[in-house]
Amino acid sequence: MCFALDGGVWLHRHRIDDEPMAHLVSADKERLLALGRELGLRPAWLQYKPLKDPRTGERVPAWHWDVWGARLETLHLGRQGGLRDD
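User: That's the sequence. What structure does it adopt?
Assistant: Structure tokens below.
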């Protein structure tokens, strides 16, 4: 998460109703919007969710995309660079 709070893009995987899903998370909104254009994500889908920085305990503005299905498969195939997945 610290990587995302420092402006990187973090691929946070999870499941909803047993379906694989991920969040692409960053404190850098412009970077996420640029990635969204590459993935065909609509800007209106970008969600604002401040995150608590574990280093300071303070809330930091952050945004995320919900990604699943074919778009998630594209990420898993490594077609998008510069993501941190952990």
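The radius of gyration is 12 Å.
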